[in-house]
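batch_manifest entry 22 of 60
target: Cytochrome b-c1 complex subunit 8
source organism: Microthlaspi erraticum
requested by: lab member K.T.
priority: normal
notes from requester: please return tokens only, no post-processing; we will run our own comparison against the previous entry in this batch. if the run fails, retry once and flag.
--- input ---
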Amino acid sequence: MGKQPVKLKAVVYALSPFQQKIMTGLWKDLPEKIHHKVSENWISTILLLAPVIGTYSYAQYYQEQEKLEHRF
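--- output ---
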């Protein structure tokens, strides 16, 4: 029994660079989608952003006080 070569057919799927209708679904009703996500998860948004904004504000305040301390 010898080995016989088997022909395989490969299927290649690709998008045409000239046809970009596939991406339109992502941008459709974008403000409405953002509003819906924020209104559903507003408490999580606050709990995420409050420490970040607080830390940033504290760092800016501390840096400004340090600059003023060495002024005189």
